[in-house]
Amino acid sequence: SSYYTQQNEVTSTDNLDFRHHSYKDMRQLMKVVNEECPTITRIYNIGKSSRGLKIYAMEVSDNPGEHETGEPEFRYTAGLHGNEALGRELLLLLMQFLCKEYQDGNPRVRGLVTDTRIHLVPSLNPDGYELAHEAGSELGNWALGHWTEEGFDLFENFPDLASALWAAEERRLVPHQFPNHHIPIPE
């Protein structure tokens, strides 16, 4: 049986870190990526969880920390449900991939990093992840770590900023009483 195990084993040749990361491991991986690609990455804190864990984000850009007028920005957020680990791991892999491919001169990745400001938040509910991880899948139930400590489902309670803007536009309050902070399109 060891012959078949070895023959079917998939081994990565790109040195990406394929494993589940605890909160501490996640922070360490983000630090390593930042140290490997300091000119295109920046780690920042967007707040704290109920238990006081910092919620980290990584910016990937040719000018990290600088807002460039006209440059599109987007944020990938994962880990809203702490017990759903896949999104967290995919964003950690994306951080590593963008760094490595940028260094290797991949033209698509270089264009993406140069022309876009990317924000990656791998764990919006780190408390839930730690809770589910400690209990393990065999001992926990499907809901363990799903909600925040206060009982919020972050997916259902995510801020809806578009509705307020649409309502203000219907009442003709935009842009004087309700600015939309968008760059106006020239006539």
UniProtKB/TrEMBL annotation:
Residues 19-187 form the Peptidase M14 domain. One of its GO terms (molecular function) is DNA-binding transcription repressor activity, RNA polymerase II-specific. GO terms for cellular component: extracellular space. Gene3D superfamilies: Zn peptidases. GO terms for biological process: peptide metabolic process; protein processing. InterPro entries: CARBOXYPEPT_ZN_1, Peptidase_M14, Peptidase_M14_domain. Pfam families: Peptidase_M14. PANTHER family: ADIPOCYTE ENHANCER-BINDING PROTEIN 1 (PTHR11532:SF48), PROTEASE M14 CARBOXYPEPTIDASE (PTHR11532). Belongs to the peptidase M14 family. This is AEBP1 protein.
